[in-house]
Design a protein that fits this description.
Blueprint (H helix, E strand, L loop, with lengths): L5 H5 L1 H8 L1 H35 L2 H4 L2 H10 L1 H27 L15 H31 L4 H21 L3 H8 L4 H7 L4 H32 L3 H5 L6 H43 L1
Helix pairs in contact: 2-13, 3-5, 3-6, 3-13, 6-7, 6-9, 6-13, 7-8, 7-9, 9-10, 11-13
């Protein structure tokens, strides 16, 4: 019996965005302010060296060696910022799960955002998932170091094998966060059991949702570039001393896009997970 349609589930984020525009705006504002606070904390925590690094274009050039030296000296502050970033993202994703799984639960401004036990549990789950992901990446890096200088085909084959294992683990654990929210308990191991026999359907859903988001991101990026061009270019919309009315409108439109785009990403990528969890869980209950 078909538990859920990967294509229908992958489109759930678009449906929710259309039906709950107020929630999207509230989430966007909350997330935008949160990112601004994180940026300020990063500047304060990593110090003047990091500021000079950014001003010199180090982030754009991808100078990982220089960035690594900065983190080596300020790793406790960086870990704190990573933790706070996970908390911020977890609050928003919990809002998505609440919108799907408990749509009638009362929340401020009908935003489906809260700060409570659900958010704490989802944050803990996401931290564990982050740790698992980092361990997998470390294993790949260590293996690549051991195989360096070996037969190129063997290295490539082994790399593909490791990538496949990571994808398999990621998909099998993909419902951990929505299941944690839905059942009110940490459900990482339980999600592994829940996804047994649903790997390909879940993988298809995740791939479709990712493709949908990339299409939206590309479209919005083109629109933003056109708006900036019509406003006179990047310099014109950031020159507050002599900004024209057209440039001001372009600035507002650009800020709106920056406000909404990250939330669209969260909605498009996480709403399908909640739909899949609900469908598989209900099917298991019926089967029992």
């Amino acid at each position: 019996m078909t538990v859920f349609s990967p294509s229908d589930a992958a489109l759930e984020g678009f449906r929710l965005t259309r039906e709950h525009p107020v929630a999207i705006l509230v989430w966007g504002l909350f997330y935008f302010l949160g990112v601004m606070v994180l940026g300020i904390l990063m500047v304060i925590g990593l110090g003047p060296t990091f500021v000079s690094f950014v001003q010199s274009g180090g982030m754009e050039s991808g100078d990982t060696a220089a960035f690594g030296q900065i983190l080596e000296k300020a790793w406790p502050q960086f870990l704190l910022i990573v933790f706070l970033a996970v908390v911020l993202l977890s609050i928003v994703t919990t809002g998505v799960y609440r919108l799907v799984l408990r749509p009638h639960e009362p929340t401020p401004l009908k935003s489906h955002l809260k700060l409570g036990a659900d958010e704490v549990r989802v944050t803990l789950t996401n931290l564990v998932m982050l740790l698992i992901g980092m361990l997998c990446l470390f294993a790949i890096a260590a293996t690549a170091g051991l195989l360096a200088g070996g037969n190129a085909r063997v290295v490539a084959l082994f790399s593909l094998l490791l990538a496949g294992v990571m994808i398999w683990i990621g998909v099998r654990l993909s419902l951990a966060a929505p299941m944690t929210f839905g059942e009110g308990r940490l459900a990482i191991a339980a999600s592994w059991r829940l996804t047994r026999g649903h790997f390909w359907r879940l993988l298809g859903m995740i791939l479709l949702a990712t493709i949908f988001y990339l299409v939206i991101w590309a479209l919005v990026s083109v629109i933003a570039a056109v708006i900036i061009t019509l406003g006179g270019g990047q310099e014109a919309i950031t020159n507050f001393g002599s900004m024209s009315p057209v440039a001001f409108v372009a600035l507002i439109a650009t800020l709106f896009i920056q406000l909404v785009l990250p939330i669209l990403q969260v909605m498009i990528l996480h709403a399908p997970l909640a739909i899949a969890y609900r469908a598989i869980r209900q099917n298991d209950v019926v089967a029992d």
